[in-house]
C-alpha cells in the first residue's frame, strides 16, 4: 500500500483547455478519496493522470515515495476499475481474473490462490467457468473488481465504476465496495457523480469545479456547508 501525493498538478489539453489547475491532494496510506463535481470539472482527467493514461502537463504525482510522471501505467503498482468493465469477452471469469497475473509471470500456485480468494470475496465462485456475456451487469462489475484485487496493487483507481448499473444494483455494489474497503484498506481514488456513493464511501471528499478544488474534507462537513 502507499500514500499518493498530487502536487501542483495541471492539465492543459491542446487548444488551451485548462482541464486541471494546480491541484494539491495529499492522500494518506489506506485513505479512500472520492472526487466529485459537475460534468467537465476535470475528475476523469485527474484520475487518468494518476493512472498514467494522460500526460501530466505541470506538477508531479507520487505513488509511495516515487515520482511517477514518467512511469508507464503498468509499472505504477495501481489497478483501475472502469465503468465499461473492460473484460475480455472470449475468456472465462477465471481467465479474466488470472490474465494480469499471468502476464506478470506470477507462479501458477500463487495465481490460483489469489483468484480463489478474490472469487470468494466477490461471490463469484459459481461463475468461474462462464464467459462475461453470460453474466449480469453486477457480476461483470464484480469480475472487473476482482481483476484489480488479484493484483494486490498499492492503490485502486475507480472511474465511475457503478454508473452503468441500475439503481438497485448500484446500492448493493456500493455496499460491496464499502466492505472491500474495510477488508483490504487499500488507498483508493474514486470518481463519481452520485452523491450517495460519495457520502457512503469517502474518508475525504474532493469537490472539483472548473479544474480547481472547491472543497475538501469529511463528507458531512462538505455536504453541510451552505
Ligand atoms: P469530468 O471527468 O469531470 O467530466 P473531464 O476530466 O472529462 O471532466 O474533462 C475536463 C475538461 O477537459 C472538459 O472541459 C473536457 O471537455 C476537457 N477534455 C477532456 N478530455 C479532453 C481531450 N482529450 N482533449 C481536449 N479536451 C479534453
Ligand atoms: P494490465 O492488467 O497489465 O493492467 P490491462 O489490459 O488491464 O492490463 O490494461 C492495460 C492498460 O490499459 C492499463 O494501463 C489500463 O489502465 C488501460 N485500460 C484497460 N482497460 C481500459 C479501458 N476500458 N479504458 C481505458 N483504459 C483502459
From TrEMBL:
Membrane topology, record value = Peripheral membrane protein
Query: One GO BP annotation here?
Result: glycerophosphodiester transmembrane transport
Coiled-coil intervals: none
Query: Which keywords are on file for this protein?
Result: ATP-binding, Cell inner membrane, Cell membrane, Membrane, Nucleotide-binding, Sugar transport, Translocase, Transport
Question: Start and end of every ABC transporter domain?
Answer: 4-226
* Subcellular location(s) of the protein: Cell inner membrane
Q: Which terms in the GO cellular component ontology are assigned? A: ATP-binding cassette (ABC) transporter complex, substrate-binding subunit-containing
User: Mind listing the GO molecular function terms for this protein?
Assistant: ABC-type transporter activity; ATP binding; ATP hydrolysis activity
> What family does the database annotate?
Belongs to the ABC transporter superfamily.
Its recorded name reads: Glycerol-3-phosphate transporter subunit ATP-binding component of ABC superfamily
Q: Which gene encodes it?
A: ugpC
Q: Which residues of the full protein are shown?
A: 1 to 226 of 365
